[in-house]
């Protein structure tokens, strides 16, 4: 688990140029241009109002407040109207930025999530072999959140903060140049210190997140294997493992809070320094006669206006960095090319002559998942409609052989042909539509029994679904369920027995009506009785279809027209049961070992 997280983190440092990342990121604003510019406009108005406030105060002080009481009272009406108006506008802008700015971020996040999910559907098996999907999904979900934060706060923060800081300094310079110069230097020094501190805090924070992932992994592993834990009395050891993860997390958490404390203290110091400079420096210039007392007050107000944007910008570097890193990881997943895809100009698998439908040929097939070759020149010819039993030692390559037919993986050498056509030359949709697979593990989707059977052919009528269930010997038990076909199955079909789930899976394939069938240890996980019941429906299913069957039951193997012994990535022997026994080779040896004399 944790190694997977590391892999994902490490992968994020692949070469992607920053320019490409930003271009792609900005592309996601495309559909929301209106919102984006409205958001920026509101940000400008908001910053302008905040900057104007001390100016108005300055103006009114000179115009009214330093005059007679009558003049002051006479001006209050105007001041009231103006301020109410300004703050009404400011409030509206604030609402728009917070509400619609966030909604824009959420839209963009939804678009990215849509693209990501589509990409997950597109990626090939080999990708899933290399990545832990659970960890990936969680990682990318948190990435997407970081990205949407950046999407929203990016333009707004950068705009408001920059405008306020630049605006304040410009106005301060207009009031008094030497004092503002000192102020500028103090600001730069303090901001740099603050930034450095925040940077350290972020490093600790990242460590923090990794250790949290460690805790999650420990919990998941331990709860996932709770049956093993309990049956081996491993509770104390599990607690100990968890204690370590928990303490490691607490440790970095404490460190991160030390930095957080220091960061906030630094900001307080920052403010203190600026106000001290204002008062002492200001006093000095007042004494010199170069600064009016009213201007000094205005000066103090502007300090309040630019101090928080400076802090916000420092904090924003974190949002920026997290959002950027998240988007880059997102992009890498999106840029991953599926290993198996339609060739340009691929046509549908042709409807061959009915008598010839489903002729399967493996021609000198070479295949490796990674470095080690698994299939080394495997050849096998299966006539249309025939049943071939693949037998051989575990790990010999039987499942792999079957996986190449629907192109779960592509061969590295040689070819796999259906009805004389290379499987790589036809569309994946038509190819997979022609092949039905029943495996040992059945996956049932959350939904009703009907939905699960209908997955075999979306749009099938109720009558067809019932007929498929009947063929699969599933009708009687489905009808006995509380809501019949409308009974919901748990997320993994928890409320059905293995044999029942298997029969639903078989009904699914009946409904699909493929010309080729792959039965990979379909009955291995079942007890003898369910196995016999299901064998009957499998026999029914394979009638008239080319069938590749991997099984351990002698009767199943024996009744196949062709038995192929797969060992070391080759077909080392093939023929009928009797022929192979007579030949007295590998199969005969295997047979004697498995089933006695
Ligand atoms: P069989 O079905 O005959 O037991 P498999 O085809 O499942 O054999 O496996 C053949 C070899 O390929 C084994 O050495 C196995 O470890 C390896 N293998 C199977 N699936 C994968 C995979 N997804 N990734 C890497 N290696 C695999
Ligand atoms: Mg296998």
What does this structure look like?
InterPro entries: AAA+_ATPase (IPR003593), ABC1_TM_dom (IPR011527), ABC1_TM_sf (IPR036640), ABC_transporter-like_ATP-bd (IPR003439), ABC_transporter-like_CS (IPR017871), P-loop_NTPase (IPR027417), Type_1_exporter (IPR039421). Keywords: ATP-binding, Membrane, Nucleotide-binding, Transmembrane, Transmembrane helix. The structure is a single chain. About 65% of the residues lie in helices and about 10% in strands. With about 600 residues, the protein is α/β, with parallel strands linked by helices. It folds into 3 domains: about 190 residues, Up-down Bundle (ABC transporter transmembrane region fold); about 110 residues; about 240 residues, Rossmann fold, CATH 3.40.50.300. The chain has a 6-stranded mixed β-sheet with strand order 6-9-10-3-11-12, sandwiched between helices. A 4-stranded antiparallel β-sheet has the order 2-1-4-5, covered by helices on one side. The chain has a two-stranded antiparallel sheet with strand order 7-8. It is elongated, with a radius of gyration of 36 Å. The two termini are about 45 Å apart. The N terminus is likely disordered. Bound molecules: adenosine-5'-diphosphate and magnesium ion. Adenosine-5'-diphosphate (ADP) binds next to helix 11.
């Amino acid at each position: 688990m944790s190694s997977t997280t590391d892999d994902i983190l490490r992968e994020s440092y692949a070469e992607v140029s920053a320019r490409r990342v930003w271009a792609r990121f900005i592309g996601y604003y495309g559909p929301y241009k209106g919102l984006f510019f409205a958001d920026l406009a509101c940000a400008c108005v908001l910053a302008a109002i905040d900057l104007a406030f001390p100016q108005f105060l300055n103006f009114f002080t000179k115009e009214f407040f330093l005059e007679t009481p009558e003049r002051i009272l006479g001006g209050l009406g105007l001041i009231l109207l103006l301020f109410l108006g300004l703050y009404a506008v400011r409030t509206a802008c604030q609402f728009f930025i917070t509400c619609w700015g966030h909604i824009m971020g959420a839209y963009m996040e939804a678009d990215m999530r849509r693209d990501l999910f589509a990409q997950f559907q597109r990626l090939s098996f080999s990708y899933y072999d290399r990545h832990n999907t659970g960890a990936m999904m969680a990682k990318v979900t948190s990435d997407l959140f970081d990205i949407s934060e950046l999407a929203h706060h990016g333009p707004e923060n950068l705009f408001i903060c920059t405008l306020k800081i630049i605006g304040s300094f410009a106005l301060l310079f207009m009031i008094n140049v030497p004092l503002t110069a000192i102020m500028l230097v103090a600001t730069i020094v303090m901001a740099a210190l603050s930034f450095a501190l925040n940077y350290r805090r972020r490093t600790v924070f990242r460590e923090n997140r990794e250790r949290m992932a460690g805790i999650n992994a420990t919990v998941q592993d331990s709860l996932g294997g709770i049956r093993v834990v309990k049956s081996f009395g491993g509770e104390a050891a599990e607690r100990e493992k968890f204690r370590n993860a928990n303490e490691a997390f607490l440790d970095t958490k404490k460190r991160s809070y030390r930095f957080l404390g220091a960061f906030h203290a630094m900001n307080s110091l920052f403010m203190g320094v600026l106000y001290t400079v204002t008062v002492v420096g200001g006093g000095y210039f007042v004494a010199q006669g170069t600064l009016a007392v009213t201007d000094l007050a205005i000066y103090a107000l502007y300090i309040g206006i630019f101090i928080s944007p400076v802090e916000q910008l420092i904090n924003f570097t974190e949002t920026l960095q997290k959002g950027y890193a998240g988007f880059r990881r997102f992009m890498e997943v999106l840029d991953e090319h599926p290993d198996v895809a339609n060739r340009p100009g691929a046509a549908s698998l042709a409807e061959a002559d009915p008598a010839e439908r489903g002729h399967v040929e493996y021609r000198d097939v070479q295949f490796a998942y990674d470095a080690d070759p698994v299939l080394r020149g495997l050849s096998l010819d299966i006539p249309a409609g025939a049943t071939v039993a693949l037998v051989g030692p575990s790990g010999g390559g039987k499942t792999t052989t079957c996986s190449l037919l629907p192109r779960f993986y592509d061969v590295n050498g040689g070819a796999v042909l259906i009805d004389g056509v290379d499987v790589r030359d036809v569309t994946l949709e038509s190819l997979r539509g022609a092949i039905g697979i029943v495996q040992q593990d059945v996956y049932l989707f959350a939904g009703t029994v009907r939905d699960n059977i209908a997955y075999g052919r979306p749009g099938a009528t109720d009558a067809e679904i019932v007929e498929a269930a009947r063929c699969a010997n599933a009708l009687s038990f489905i009808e006995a369920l509380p809501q019949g076909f409308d009974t919901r199955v748990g997320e993994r079909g928890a409320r059905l027995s293995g044999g029942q789930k298997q029969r639903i899976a078989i009904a699914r394939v009946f409904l699909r009506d493929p010309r080729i069938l792959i039965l990979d240890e379909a009955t291995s996980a079942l007890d003898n009785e369910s196995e016999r019941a299901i064998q009957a429906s499998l026999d029914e299913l394979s009638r008239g279809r080319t069938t590749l069957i991997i099984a351990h039951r002698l009767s199943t193997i024996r009744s196949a027209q062709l038995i192929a012994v797969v060992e070391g990535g080759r077909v080392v022997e093939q023929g009928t049961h009797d022929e192979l026994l007579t030949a007295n080779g590998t199969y005969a040896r295997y047979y004697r070992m498995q089933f006695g004399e």
